[in-house]
Write a structure and sequence with these properties.
With 120 residues, this protein is mainly alpha-helical. It has six helices and no strands.
């Protein structure tokens, strides 16, 4: 499903070829780091990452900050450190400087992915 979404986004010029390729790199890294097993597990995260990457590259308006209460919950989660480490690796592979408030959303997605993995 995520591959189909990415293809549709690219075909409709919502994301460019570079962003599409970056999402393939991101999916591979998530598998390598055992954050996901199947690509579709990361559907929401990859969709958000693709859109955020596109917004940055087009210098479009940024998202609002994560609610402070939610941010506290994310930072208190046992998976938070792993999420930060994975995001650091991902952000080094994607040639975009994301604002801090966007990073917090990525941490939220990654913590959720890691928590869902533990539940399985």
């Amino acid at each position: 499903m995520i591959q189909e979404k990415l293809t549709i986004l690219k075909e409709n010029d919502v994301i460019d070829e570079t962003t599409y390729e970056d999402m393939q790199v991101a999916l591979n890294l998530l598998k390598q780091e055992a954050v996901i097993i199947e690509e579709d597990e990361a559907d929401t995260f990859i969709t958000h990452l693709a859109m955020a990457t596109s917004r940055q590259r087009r210098d479009e308006e940024q998202v609002d900050s994560v609610d402070p209460m939610i941010k506290q919950e994310i930072e208190a989660a046992p998976e938070y450190e792993k999420a930060v480490a994975v995001w650091k690796q991902l952000s080094e592979k994607i040639d975009v400087d994301f604002p801090k408030n966007e990073d917090d959303y990525f941490y939220l997605h990654l913590v959720t992915l890691l928590q869902n993995k533990k539940e399985k």
